[in-house]
Specification:
- The protein has 2 domains: about 15-50; about 55-175, Immunoglobulin-like (Sandwich), CATH 2.60.40.10.
- The chain has one helix at about 15-45; strands spanning about 55-60, 70-75, 80-90, 95-105, 120-125, 130-135, 140-155, 160-175.
- The longest helix has about 30 residues, at about 15-45.
- About 10% of the residues are buried.
- The strands form 2 sheets. The chain has a 5-stranded mixed sheet with strand order 2-8-7-4-5, with no helix packed on it.
- With about 180 residues, it is α+β, with helices and mostly antiparallel strands.
- Helices cover about 20% and strands about 45% of the residues.
- It is built from 1 helix and 8 strands, in the order H-E-E-E-E-E-E-E-E.
């Protein structure tokens, strides 16, 4: 004879099972609230440090980088215009000096010992970017290097070199 076992579905949960579910849900909700509070603090109350810097660059006479002179003919087109740009991202107003120097490309740079042919002094606000016209005249045959050095003024230390410079090498020929 075969015995049949009748199984009944247990449709009711014990009181302890229901209490465990409530505890798990409550724990998850508390964790979500804590994570949310940390994210809100991170997004709205944490100060992000931005890198402070000064920048210098040069552009051609059309304020682009496409037609920078590479070769000039002495006496014909050896005087030309460039633009030099300075950017202030130091978090404060800064007094800058751009020193324009021309050498044969063999002297050290950073800073160059050559006397400046021109100095441009300007005050820039934080986040300000300015471009200034510069007229360059070359009179030496061969390789010429035009150097733009960026200096700033400090009330306690007078003037300081920022360590920022750019240069452009131009060959001067005779025809």
């Amino acid at each position: 004879m075969e015995k049949k076992i009748k199984r009944t579905a247990n449709s009711t949960k014990s009181a302890s099972g229901n209490s465990e579910e409530k505890t798990i849900i409550l724990t998850i909700l508390i964790a979500l609230v804590i994570i949310g509070a940390l994210l809100v603090n991170l997004v709205f109350f944490t100060h992000v440090e931005t890198e402070q810097f000064s920048a210098i660059y040069y552009l051609d006479s059309e304020k682009q980088t496409t037609n920078l002179p590479k070769t000039v003919v002495l006496g014909e087109n050896s005087t030309f215009s460039l633009w030099v740009g300075v950017e202030n991202q130091n978090g404060t107003t800064m007094d800058y000096s751009v020193r324009v120097k021309v050498d044969d490309g063999k002297s050290l740079v950073n800073p160059s010992p050559v006397e400046p042919t021109e100095m441009i002094n300007r005050t820039l606000l934080n986040d300000e970017n300015r471009e200034f016209p510069v007229k360059i005249s070359l009179d030496q045959l061969g390789s010429n290097r035009v150097i733009f050095e960026l200096w700033f003024f400090n009330a306690t230390k007078n003037e300081l070199y920022t360590g920022n410079w750019v240069s452009l090498t131009i060959e001067a020929i005779q025809e």
